[in-house]
Automatic annotation (TrEMBL):
PROSITE patterns: FPG_CAT, ZF_FPG_1, ZF_FPG_2
Organism: Marinobacterium mangrovicola
Alphabetical list of Gene3D superfamilies matching this protein: 1.10.8.50, MutM-like, N-terminal
Family stated for the protein in its record: Belongs to the FPG family.
Enzymatic reactions: 2'-deoxyribonucleotide-(2'-deoxyribose 5'-phosphate)-2'-deoxyribonucleotide-DNA = a 3'-end 2'-deoxyribonucleotide-(2,3-dehydro-2,3-deoxyribose 5'-phosphate)-DNA + a 5'-end 5'-phospho-2'-deoxyribonucleoside-DNA + H(+); Hydrolysis of DNA containing ring-opened 7-methylguanine residues, releasing 2,6-diamino-4-hydroxy-5-(N-methyl)formamidopyrimidine
Active site: P2, E3, K58, R260
Functional summary from the UniProt entry: Involved in base excision repair of DNA damaged by oxidation or by mutagenic agents. Acts as DNA glycosylase that recognizes and removes damaged bases. Has a preference for oxidized purines, such as 7,8-dihydro-8-oxoguanine (8-oxoG). Has AP (apurinic/apyrimidinic) lyase activity and introduces nicks in the DNA strand. Cleaves the DNA backbone by beta-delta elimination to generate a single-strand break at the site of the removed base with both 3'- and 5'-phosphates.
Oligomer and partners: Monomer.
Coiled coil: none
Domain of life, per lineage: Bacteria
Protein name stated in the entry: Formamidopyrimidine-DNA glycosylase
UniProt entry keywords in alphabetical sequence: DNA damage, DNA repair, DNA-binding, Glycosidase, Hydrolase, Lyase, Metal-binding, Multifunctional enzyme, Zinc, Zinc-finger
Domain FPG-type per the UniProt entry, residue ranges: 236-270
Amino acid sequence: MPELPEVETSRAGIAPHLVGHRVARLVIRQPQLRWPIPANLALCLEGKVIRSVARRGKYILISVEGGAALLHLGMSGSVRILPAGAPAAKHDHVDLVLDTGSMLRLTDPRRFGALLWQPENELHSLLASLGPEPLSDEFNAEYLQTCCKGRKTAIKTLIMNSQLVVGVGNIYANEALFQAGIDPRRAAGRVSAQRLEQLVICIKQVLARAIEQGGTTLRDFVGGDGKPGYFKQELHVYGRAGELCHSCGSILKEVRLGQRSTVYCPSCQR
DNA sequence: CTAAGGACCTGTCGGC
DNA sequence: TGCCGACAGGTCCTTA
């Protein structure tokens, strides 16, 4: 479900319900996520006031005195604010119960998500080697050109590499490359500097626009406020293989790159 | 070092 | 209707 826009939508949706409030209890029904939830996490959080709810890449950081809970939604995770005590369904793995009578509930059918602990003044190893935020100035044409130099990897695979830039998942990689007019299969090192400059602009535009729209709801994604995302209406290639290009009318093609579905217009993208 | 593939897990969908 | 394989928003880890 979540790429950066969906994570940011979730973060923004839950933050007002959490910040400034005290954690009454952490209820863990299923600790086996991608990594086990640390046994001492409840002790780290209970009784503490939540200071901030931030985001780094696709991680949500819920900070309290002493550290931060790191939350990753994986492929199928989502969070919602509910009244404390709402009945739990099959994949409702964790509740962060607040002293307000509300709780944050984590649901994740595939359990590729994670809930970990990062002590204050330490950088969790999962965050240590992440690339820059795509919407920051640090992610610019010059930077991407350096990343691509000499690389034979397909440009799409490269922009999805979180060590180089975070937050660009399969949907938005497809969309950004369409907007930039670049064939996703093209070796990164063989994309001209000018077109990489364009790609940076397109990645930023697509992500920013998707955040404005509350993310992309494919199946049942809803933000922390329970509303679906509306960006799906603006998708040009993702999920549209065999349909007509919105720009030139050609039939969109599909290939696999790094085992991910890749859709592009053979006429507009070179 | 880079690149490619498998692994993790459950639900859904299309085909027979 | 039922079964089986393929596929799904991520990304770490192993292997070559």
